[in-house]
């Protein structure tokens, strides 16, 4: 079937099998291999991309269902040679070892910070009626909000530190 | 994955007709259940009809109720200011399930229609009456630690996995649908999910091709004092071993009325009206809640590996009610 995908502000006219997941379309058809295939069954978060501003799993998304939607991948995060603040924070905090889960972690973290700025609660928020605040957000909150991204190297403490660094910086500015 | 035709409809009736036209056609919303189960060959539709573009993505708040479009995502509902204010138990239940990525994809209707996580249902080489009627149930004598103790039958003991549905059930939500001929109806939540009985493959009260359009949750002032407690093997991103959704209507420290729903231990979202009624007029003390918990689990049937769930569920109920009692409203 023929579909049009809008990825990182570029339009791609494609002829695809209806069975193709967005993950496989990105990697195998478009050569955008920054998005990683981990479990391929919605358990690990390595394939996280952003659709219409929300983080989702590309392995459980059919490419055909993405017609007309804005898709953002790790390749679209930099501005020219300038790293996104979350990418810079991951480098600064040494928030990865093998790096395989890192693109998904970074995209998920970018959205997690936006969600905190929007004030929305998580499972560990004491009172869902209250707006959460980036300046006072606990590590428990960051871990819960990032629980959809597994890291088998166990870089979690430094991932939490990277998210905390971006939150602190954005709250200051 | 097996080949299928992908269709996108622009109107609810068209989508219903498109699915009704093919015996193995299915609706696709967020895909977190359907695409997952198509990959492992458990669901094999020849036609998939995308229903995320039917104009069913709104949340309408009125003085009487909140009407939630079928394609509203789990995140949108859990994060909505009116849901957090009126129905904390619903927001908490949704946020306790899965991860942000999955809640951003999964729709409210899809959550209601999600399939069991029983490993024998998900394995096409295992015997499963729910997946393939009449083949038997490998869970009965297999590894059934995660399985149900309430609403079970000799044909199926699979647990209903939803957290959201447990809260929807005690809030007396109504599921609104449209059929291929254009007729609409409203199904009370308590009648929507079916215990397995002799027909475990019949899971919900929908006809083939009948499409959920929205869910209406009537206003319940007492629900400001509500709580969802989920107990599981990990701190996050895991299905419930036992969960309790509760609403407490208090007059001082006396209970005027209570509601109690249970997840993780039953074959469908579970509510114990008897336990609720036992609380009326009594003091909101842990001992009272324990009495209600005993009633709620009366008749529970355990298998080899899930006996612990009966006591776990009772303690979960007591703690959930205690948490609701201590909410400052």
Task: Report a brief summary of the structure.
The complex is a heterodimer of chains A (173) and B (329). Chain A is of the alpha+beta class. Chain A contains 5 helices and 5 strands; from the N terminus they run E-E-H-E-E-E-H-H-H-H.
What keyword list fits this structure?
heterodimer, A: 173 residues, alpha+beta, Ubiquitin-like (UB roll), DNA polymerase, domain 1, 2 domains, 5 helices, 34% helix, B: alpha+beta, Uridine Diphospho-n-acetylenolpyruvylglucosamine Reductase, domain 2, Enolase-like, domain 1, five-stranded antiparallel beta sheet, four-stranded antiparallel beta sheet, 12 strands, globular
Descriptive account of the structure:
The complex is a heterodimer of chains A (173) and B (329). Chain A contains five helices and five strands; from the N terminus they run ββαβββαααα. Chain A has 173 residues and is α+β, with helices and mostly antiparallel strands. A five-stranded mixed beta sheet of chain A has the order 2-1-5-3-4, covered by helices on one side. The longest helix of chain A is centred in the middle third of the chain and has 17 residues, at 102-118. Chain A is globular. By secondary structure, chain B is α+β, with helices and mostly antiparallel strands. Chain B has 13 helices and twelve strands. Chain B has a five-stranded antiparallel beta sheet. Chain B has a four-stranded antiparallel beta sheet with strand order 9-10-11-12, sandwiched between helices. In chain B, a hairpin with a 3-residue loop joins β4 and β5 (65-69). In chain B, α5 (88-95) runs antiparallel to α9 (164-170), α11 packs antiparallel against α12 (286-296) and α12 packs across α13. The longest helix of chain B has 18 residues, at 308-325. The chains are: A alpha+beta (173), B alpha+beta (329). Chains A and B meet through β4, α3 and α4 of A and β1, α2, α3, α5 and α6 of B.
